[in-house]
TrEMBL record:
It comes from Ictidomys tridecemlineatus (Thirteen-lined ground squirrel). Residues 1-20 form the signal peptide. This is Olfactomedin-4. Residues 180-441 form the Olfactomedin-like domain. It is found in: Secreted. GO terms for cellular component: extracellular space. PANTHER family: OLFACTOMEDIN 5, OLFACTOMEDIN-RELATED. Residues 159-169 have a biased composition (Basic and acidic residues). SUPFAM superfamilies: YVTN repeat-like/Quinoprotein amine dehydrogenase (SSF50969). Keywords: Secreted, Signal. Its main location: secreted. InterPro entries: Olfac-like_dom, Olfactomedin-like_domain, Quino_amine_DH_bsu.
Length: 471
């Protein structure tokens, strides 16, 4: 405000000898108006200053209490220096000076005083603009700092998890009983064990196989379902009542269906679930009689290879069973191709609950469920995959991880988890493989706070849970 008063004082003390008689009269009138305006402005400024002086202490006390409360709830929430009453007062003074110079300039006409007022107006405008730019720059720097803190917090969380996993591997706990979820998630994946080539031959590269994915099934049923050579049509499958029969290729039942689509099928409680050909329908077949017992559309699900996995065509509906029930993984137009997880009623095929993820399904190479947790894979090379993402449907928490998974050939087609033996059954370009899974047992967990998320207008990457609308 000091430059404003200095220039106005210069204007009022302008010597008359520099001007003619008409200009002197105009200047005297202008000086008189300027004195009145300056007096009025100073009175208004004194009143505003007094009001702010009374409010500042109260607002600062309130702000201090808010900051302390926010730091307790979220230590990353910090009040900017440019969101204080003092800053607002300075901005108000500049706006008042701008209004005053504009009014004086309109009354000065074409004279030397008008030139001085124009210079004054430019200075006030530049000062106001600089102040606003400074505030914007502070906010950008603050947000950038918040993002750096988020990254560091995430790295710290991962270091703590790796320490837990290292401790667990040095002192392994007792093996998990079949169907148990007394653990804190997947820790590592064993080496791939190649069982054999599928019974239809090397040209049938796409398909799926596994064990009944219901926890503690009545019989150790194994199933193998190679697709046709086109990699889409599911028409035959075999059932084996024991692992030895599967290895020896004996004592099997072979059935023909002729209406399956893709390699996303699974077996749960002696029923096979799969995508009905050319539709977004869920189909359910009774394995004891090879009878189609139920067919029902999955609301909103895309089909006909709209959003399949990377390098795995026609896998629009990917079924999974685990300790918590029967699931289907898919994409919708509404989700813009992102992976959607729905829990199904195994009897009626109705959708019981749905979660929408932030993972683009065509960027994934596959996914599976274990203890209500979604695990997503991506391809690192022709010989290695990475389980990089997990989402727990029981508490709505997501996390990123890095668990490497070796493979014999390039593409993983059907991926099915079995709670009975905690194995992952994978159909790898025509070969039947399985992996032993190790979970982080509860006795090795370390209590630590959950990763904080920044508040404000930045979008949180947390997943969105919703109730079904079409069931």
């Amino acid at each position: 405000m000091q430059p404003v008063l200095t220039l106005l004082a210069t204007l009022l003390l302008l010597p008359p000898v520099l001007l003619g008689q008409p200009q002197v009269q105009q200047l005297e009138q202008l000086q008189s108006m300027a004195k009145e305006l300056i007096g009025e402005y100073e009175q208004q400024l004194l009143w505003v200053s007094a009001e702010y002086a009374r409010a500042i202490e109260e607002q600062e006390n309130q702000a201090l209490e808010m900051i302390q409360t926010q730091e307790i709830r979220n230590p990353k929430t910090i009040t900017s220096l440019y969101e204080t009453p003092a800053f607002n007062l300075l901005l108000l003074e500049l706006e008042g000076a701008q209004a005053l110079t504009t009014e004086l300039k309109s009354k000065a006409g074409a004279s030397r005083a008008a030139d001085l007022l124009h210079q004054l107006q430019e200075q006030v405008t530049n000062a106001s603009l600089s102040l606003k730019l400074l505030a914007d720059s502070d906010q950008r720097n603050f947000r950038a700092l918040q993002q750096e803190v988020d990254v560091l917090q995430g790295q710290l969380n991962e270091c703590e998890r790796e320490k837990e996993q290292e401790q667990a591997s040095r002192h392994p706990g007792p093996p998990l009983p079949p169907g148990s979820c007394a653990h804190r998630g997947l820790q590592k994946v064993g080496r791939p064990l190649v069982l054999q080539l599928n019974w239809r031959g090397i040209s049938h590269k796409a398909g799926a196989w596994g064990r009944d994915s219901a926890p503690s099934p009545d019989s150790p049923l194994y199933w193998v379902a190679p697709l046709r050579t086109d990699g889409r049509y599911f028409d035959y499958y075999r059932l084996h009542k024991s692992y030895d029969d599967l290895v020896m290729l004996k004592n099997y039942e072979q059935w023909k269906m002729g209406y399956g689509d893709g390699s996303g099928n699974t077996v749960y409680k002696n029923f096979m679930y799969f995508n009905y050909y050319g539709t977004n329908d869920i189909a359910k077949v009774d394995l004891s009689s090879n009878t189609l017992v139920l067919q029902r559309p999955l609301p909103g699900a895309t089909y006909n290879n709209r959003f399949s996995y990377a390098s795995v065509p026609w896998k629009d509906l990917d079924f999974a069973g685990d300790e918590k029930g029967l699931w289907v993984l898919y994409a919708t137009e509404e989700s813009k191709g992102n992976l959607v997880v729905s829990r199904l009623n195994a009897s009626t095929l109705e959708v019981e609950e749905t979660w929408r993820t932030s993972q683009y399904k065509p960027a994934l190479s596959g996914a599976f469920m274990a203890c209500g947790v979604l695990y997503a894979l991506r391809s690192l090379s022709t010989r290695q995959e990475e389980i990089f993402y997990a989402f727990d449907t029981t508490n709505g928490q997501e996390r990123h991880l890095s668990i490497l998974l070796d493979k014999m050939l390039e593409t993983l087609h059907g991926i099915n988890y079995s709670p009975s033996d905690h194995r992952l059954y994978v159909y790898n370009d025509g070969y039947l493989m399985y992996y032993d899974l190790t979970f982080l047992t509860l006795k090795h967990t370390v209590s630590r706070p959950a990763a904080k998320r920044p508040s404000g207008d930045r979008a949180s990457p947390r997943l969105v849970k919703s109730k079904p609308s079409g069931s």
